[in-house]
Amino acid sequence: MSAFLGAFASHAFLQHALAAGVLASIACGIVGSYVVVKRIGYLAGGVAHTVLGGMGIAYFLGKSPIGGALVAALLAALIIGWVSLRFRQHEDTIIGALWAVGMALGIIFISRTPGYNVDLMSYLFGNILMVPREDLLLMAGLDGVIVALVWLFRKQFLAVCFDEEFARLRGVPVDVFYLGLLLIVALTVVILIQVVGLVLVIALLTLPAAIASQYARSLAAMMLTATLLGVIFTSAGLALSYEPDLPAGATIILLAGMAYLLSALGRGIWLRWHRTTALPEAKP
Amino acid sequence: MKPVIELKDVSFAYDIGPPALEHVSLAVGEGEFLGLVGPNGGGKSTLLKLVLGLLRPSSGEVRVVGGTPQESRRVIGYVPQYARFARDFPISVEETVLLGRLGTTRLLGGYRAADREAAHLAMTETEVLDLRQRPLGTLSGGQLQRVLVARALACDPLILILDEPTANIDMRGETEIFDLFKALNQRMTIVVVSHDIGFISRYVTRVACLNRTLLCHQPVPIGLDVIEKLYGMPVQRIPHGEACEMEAKP
Q1: Are A170 and B100 a contacting pair at CB < 8 A?
Q2: What's the complex ipTM?
Q3: Which of B55, B73, B74, B91 would you mutate first to test chain A, the one with the most A CBs within 10 A?
Q4: Which of A94, A227, B148, B212 is 20–30 Å from A188 (CA)?
């Protein structure tokens, strides 16, 4: 650990990595809370994997991969959102289809791209240790946009996540806010994929918020808790992976997964113990 | 009496299955307390959804305070039959009630002081003010129902529509909540769906019996013959508690 702290003070790449972890945690803590309470984790996964298709096509055409990713993600979010609003019973089939077709498209186009071969692993797991300064600024910008949108429309987003029918009856344009939420998810995925990879985005989007949901009493508290947990997981993951030279992204994911498992188990045991000790008192 | 809800020869069928409603004509006057009764699958919830503008009739016309249901949505306070949300959703009682202010409050940012005041008033009236900081998931069925009524009242409605409001409540809670509706009826029109015709006939001013079509609508008290017509078979009377006023009538 002291080796990590020493290296942290002298190496800019570690400071960048830590900053990337914090910035990613903010976006994921806020957006992930919506994903968890609205139960659209599978949907977010579908959007995230479709991105690969857009990137592959962009590479093939010689365009910027992030542009391709953005188009693919926004398109996927709109298609999935429209299907889920109109034909709810087919939602998971459509998501599964887009998920698989998107990845397959990406791989086909990348394989036909002349010149160089792109390392697919870097899209799946990213490399948080090689985040350039411009990407940090991009992430900070994304965080700003997300915080502003959520701050301005927090009532509507809460209403749409909590009780769609009632929101509709109060004149809230539910479809607009639902699709808006999916577009924010897509935007978050695209920006963060560049930095930390597909798998870490999904992990950061769901695990901290899922842990927070077991304790938080309000959506705002859940977002704050999830963000803090994300910061803890990314920083601790970086520190733990440094000396044994483990892949940083994977270490962070395992840490978050383990924390989720422990939290769920601990809570289950505590609730059961609470119930069995409370029962005898309830009897007259 | 000025009708606030009007259904003119309304029919409705879902995509699959037989028609849910056929040729229903019904007018609800201002200040009425209408009980909507009928067997399961008789179209009660469908009729409410038509009035709320969540469904559009296949034929016929629905008017609410002179406009289409979509135009008039904001004058209606609605209490659904089942909680349509996850019980473990991280939200407090007060936040839930405040959602009733959507459509009245400003578009951006948080709520105004006037919204908090309206929510406060609604929670006082439904006696859930003490619970306002509690997470929704920790409430009992009766407390949750009162919170949902408070949310509907926070809309400042002209019409209160309740779908089986006592489905998850014990007998005592049922009496208490209908006493509350009776008091609210002093200032607003109420439509309540129920399967317990005997119980609600002590409170409502009129009963409408629905089984795919409108079988009858008449002021209380209603007779046994009506109930038999409604269920299509002889009905046995079982007195429960005080809710057997109906039996006293010939």
Answers
A1: yes
A2: 0.84
A3: B91
A4: A94
